Request: fold
Amino acid sequence: MVATNIVGTARLLDAAVEAGVKAFIHSGSSSEYGLKNTAAREDDRLEPNSDYAVTKGAATHYCRHVAVSRDFNAITLRLYSIYGPWEAPTRLVPVLLTHALRGEWPPLTPPSTARDFVYVGDAVEAMLAVAAAPSVPRGAIYNVCLRSADNAGRRSSIRFAICWRSRRSRAGRRWRRETGIPIAGWDRRTRIAQAVGWRATTPLREGLSRTLAWMRAPT
Reply:
């Protein structure tokens, strides 16, 4: 993780500066924030609680340092849980869909952790929008998240009878929902929407349907 996330990012960024490229988009992670009791904002203090999160946070700091010190257009997009075609089969959405095709429930962690899922196509559009924007500040950081999980759930019309706590939680979850802190009512005018007009446009139901169609397609 150190070799890839920190050293690899630094070398790519240094090469981009030397080559005079127009923009360098660093794929950060919501894991950099660590556990939070509310949805994280870009200027929140980083409290990474896993090796992966530490390395991603360090890479973000390096990108911001180079952007400011060398007046270079390096931008970090902190991606939330990206899903869709070509996702690693061990991650949540592919596991859920694979088990669903067999009529089974997968092992699940306790429901105390809230996640935000963004379809991969929307994430790509966010990167392209930021790269092409003429006035994004050097070293800017933007969260790439749906921020409307409550509405996505209603649109999907999915109803679950889930056996929670059949799998242990891993460290480094995005943010934790405590008693009295609702998911609904998140600020939908996110910083990236204000900067470049990007918003995720793929509802959860549609994104899952696309992913399932890709999984079913012959290889």
The domain at 2-216 is CATH 3.40.50.720 (Rossmann fold).
